[in-house]
Design brief:
Order of helices and strands: HHH
Distance between the termini: 21 Å
Number of domains: 1
Helix content: 10-25%
Largest sheet: none
Number of strands: 0
């Protein structure tokens, strides 16, 4: 199992998203050349227009990020944290229990994803 215990400060930020260059990021996704999103620090970013559907977001740190209304179906969110993120209208993967989402939003826990039955 992946070790997600590294310091959040050491996690790399996504340049395109950090500069809120969502259009460039979305072009990369549309061209089937998405950047490696695993274990990235996406804290405090406005990601409402980012095309994240189906990406591997495992280990990402979304503290205080605005995720309002985005589609995360098909995403791997194992080990990700969404502490204090805006999540209204987010479509989460089916294999992510609501308890994991609530624990992560409220307490900053890393989410555990379970296989579908």
């Amino acid at each position: 199992m992946k070790d997600y215990s590294s310091s959040i400060d050491k996690l790399p930020k996504m340049t395109e998203l950090l500069e809120e260059n969502i259009d460039e990021f979305n072009k990369m996704v549309d061209n089937n050349n998405p950047p490696d999103m695993r274990n990235k620090n996406l804290s405090s970013l406005d990601l409402r227009k980012a095309k994240l559907k189906g990406l591997d977001l495992s280990g990402c740190y979304f503290r205080n990020a605005n995720l309002k209304g985005i589609d995360l179906t098909g995403c791997s969110l194992h080990g990700a944290s969404i502490h204090n993120a805006t999540i209204s209208g987010v479509l989460f993967p089916e294999n992510l229990p609501v308890e994991e989402i609530l624990m992560s939003v409220n307490y900053g826990t890393r989410m555990r994803v379970f296989p579908k039955d």
